[in-house]
C-alpha cells in the first residue's frame, strides 16, 4: 500500500519540506533507507545519515534545519519519535484491517458475533461464545464454550482460549498463548500417588492487556485468575492458578509466578524472575532479571538476587561476593599469624 508525503503529513499534522507527491510503501531505519521507504530522525547521533539516506520521506522535529544538501522529503512535526510511533500504529491497523469469516471454520450457532469481525480459516468457536465488535481472530485459533471477548481485541494465530474465560476490550493475545488451561493442582494419597484437583474457575483479562507469544495463564481452582487493566506480558511467561496481577504492571519473558500470589499495580518485573506462591507483592515494585522472590514485598521496593535482596544491599554485597576467595585467603592468613603468635 502506497502513501504520499501529503497523506502522511495529514495523519501527523506535520509540515512538508520537499515533494508532497512522493510515495512510500515501506518503513526503514534512516541508515538503511531506500527509495520508496519512510524513516525518521529523532536521535541527534543519527543526524549525519539524513544527508546520505536514500529514504524518500523522513520525519524530523520542527527544530531541525539541514546544514547541507538533502535528497529526502522532510515532514516536520513536534516530536519525530512519537509521530513515527503513531504512524507505526496506523500502519499496523491498516495491515490488520481484515473482515469476514473464512472457510473452513466452525462457529457454534449459539454464539453471538459482533459487527465487523474477522475469523480466520480453521478457527473453532464453541457454544455460547460472545464476541464484540471489530474483533480479529486469526487462523487456527481455539475459543472454548462460554468465552466472552470484548470490542477491538486481536487474537493471533494458534492462540487457545479455554471455556468460561473473559477477555476485555482492546486486548492483544499473541500466537501460541494459552488462556485458561488447568492450574497445577494435585494432591498425594497414602500410596504416594497424585490425584488431580479439578480446576473449575476461569481467567479474567481486563481491558488494554497485551499477552505475548507462548505465554500461559492458568484458570483458577475456584474463582478467577485475574489480569488487570493495562497489564503487558512478554513472551513465554507462566502465570499459575488464582494469581492476580495489578493494573499497568509489566512483566518480561520467562518469568514464572506460582499459584495464589497477588502482584500490585505499576510493577516492573524483569526476565526469568521466579515468584513463589501465596505471597503479596505491593505496588510500584521493581524486580531485576533472574531474581527469586520468596517473601511478601512492600510497596516501592527494588529487588535483585536469589533469594532477592533490596537492590542497594545486593550491589553492596556483590562487591564481596566476587572477592570471596581473596577475602577467605586474607582471613586464613590472619588466623595463621594470630595462631603463630600464640
From TrEMBL:
Q: Function, please? A: Catalyzes the N-acylation of UDP-3-O-acylglucosamine using 3-hydroxyacyl-ACP as the acyl donor. Is involved in the biosynthesis of lipid A, a phosphorylated glycolipid that anchors the lipopolysaccharide to the outer membrane of the cell.
The record's keywords, sorted A to Z, are:
Acyltransferase, Lipid A biosynthesis, Lipid biosynthesis, Lipid metabolism, Repeat, Transferase
Q: Subunit structure, per the record?
A: Homotrimer.
- Alphabetized NCBIfam families for the sequence: lipid_A_lpxD, PRK00892.1
UniProt-listed InterPro entries: Hexapep (IPR001451), LpxD (IPR007691), Trimer_LpxA-like_sf (IPR011004), UDP_GlcNAc_AcTrfase_non-rep (IPR020573)
Query: Which Gene Ontology terms describe the biological processes this protein takes part in?
Result: lipid A biosynthetic process
Annotated source species: Ichthyenterobacterium magnum
Q: Where is the UDP-3-O-[3-hydroxymyristoyl] glucosamine N-acyltransferase non-repeat region domain?
A: 21-89
Q: What class of enzyme is it?
A: transferase
Gene3D superfamilies found in the cross-reference section = Hexapeptide repeat proteins, MurE/MurF, N-terminal domain
The UniProt entry, under Pfam families, shows: Hexapep, LpxD
Sorted alphabetically, the Gene Ontology cellular component annotations on this record are: membrane
UniProt lists the family membership as follows: Belongs to the transferase hexapeptide repeat family. LpxD subfamily.
Reaction catalysed?
a UDP-3-O-[(3R)-3-hydroxyacyl]-alpha-D-glucosamine + a (3R)-hydroxyacyl-[ACP] = a UDP-2-N,3-O-bis[(3R)-3-hydroxyacyl]-alpha-D-glucosamine + holo-[ACP] + H(+)
- Enzyme Commission number, as recorded: 2.3.1.191
Q: Which GO terms describe its molecular function?
A: N-acyltransferase activity; UDP-3-O-[(3R)-3-hydroxyacyl]-glucosamine N-acyltransferase activity
UniProt KW Iron keyword: no
* Name of this protein: UDP-3-O-acylglucosamine N-acyltransferase
The biological pathway it contributes to is: Bacterial outer membrane biogenesis; LPS lipid A biosynthesis
